[in-house]
Specification:
2 domains; disordered C terminus; Rossmann fold; alpha/beta; 12 helices; EC 5.1.1.3
């Protein structure tokens, strides 16, 4: 019998959105230890250049690697779209997962033939998420919509649906008219306003790839043996960590057990070589690591 042990899983996002990914992992793997870094000083990443996103992603991962993580989960889809190869090159021995790895398997078993992707401008322009969807479902039509106004509102903690309304209408009405049967939430911030999104496309199935990714990793018991530990969560921020704490309290309070679903294989990204409530602590990001 393999000895049980707790993984130390690092995650990062430009701000609070990646907490939805953290919640998914805590829901499916509560026994492990999590270190989350929110780059709140530089949010959002979605309108930055690819070069800026790569630099900020490297700096964020440096914070996590300094805390001895065993596995990296890129909880920012903008970063996953443009920076993963750079991260793998810099940290060849660190297993890396992204929601990009889950988006294809997440839609493979749904019958809808009209699939939409709602994401940041940089993610849409990169095209990699849409390419994964087309590869997974060559029988389906795929449309991508950039939603640049949403992340800044979410990061500011805006709750009023009336503020989101005009933006959501402009992004989603064309998809409703088109008859989108599946809508992939292509930014980890969007599950925080999922109810408002769903209300505008009531006949469309919303998919959050984070749930599929977390469930898959939890099922890989040979690679990640279960631990008897109660687990922990550490929140780090480049700015005010109390912002993360407030969002985490809200997100974690909604953690529920979901029914398991079968879906395709998701693989770890690693550079080739030649040879549930959680205890929350707060840490300080190391000064001078961010550009």
């Amino acid at each position: 019998m393999k000895e049980a042990w707790a993984l130390r899983i690092g995650m990062y996002d430009s701000g609070v959105g990646g907490l939805t990914v953290l919640a998914a992992f805590v829901r499916h793997m509560p026994e492990h230890d999590y270190v989350y870094f929110g780059d709140t000083l530089h949010a959002p990443y979605g309108d930055r250049t690819a070069e800026e996103v790569r630099a900020l992603s490297l700096a964020a991962v440096k914070q996590l690697v300094a805390r001895d993580i065993d596995l990296l989960v890129v909880a920012c889809n903008t970063s996953a779209s443009v920076a993963v190869d750079t991260l793998v090159d810099h940290y060849p021995d660190l297993p890396v997962l992204t929601l990009l790895d889950a988006v294809g398997p997440a839609v493979q078993h749904f019958p809808g033939r009209k699939i939409a992707l709602l994401a940041t401008r940089r993610t849409v322009e990169a095209g990699v998420f849409e390419a994964r969807l087309r590869s997974a479902r060559p029988d389906a039509a795929v449309r991508s919509v950039a939603a640049p106004a949403l992340v800044p509102l979410i990061e500011r903690g805006v709750k009023d649906p009336a503020v989101y309304g005009p933006f959501l209408d402009s992004y989603l009405k064309p998809l409703a008219t088109w008859g989108a049967e599946v809508l992939v939430l292509g930014c980890t911030h969007y599950p925080l306003i999922a109810n408002q999104i769903q209300s505008r496309v009531p006949h469309t199935l919303l998919i959050d790839p984070a749930n599929h990714l977390a469930r898959h990793v939890a099922e890989k018991q040979d690679a990640f043996p279960a631990s008897s530990s109660s687990g922990s969560v550490t929140l780090l921020a480049s700015g005010d960590a109390t912002v993360l704490d407030a969002f985490w309290k809200s997100v974690s309070s909604q953690i529920q057990t979901e029914a398991s679903e079968e879906y395709g294989h998701i693989g770890l990204r690693r550079k080739p070589t030649t040879s549930g409530a959680k205890a929350v602590t707060h840490g300080s990001a190391t000064p001078g690591m961010h550009p």
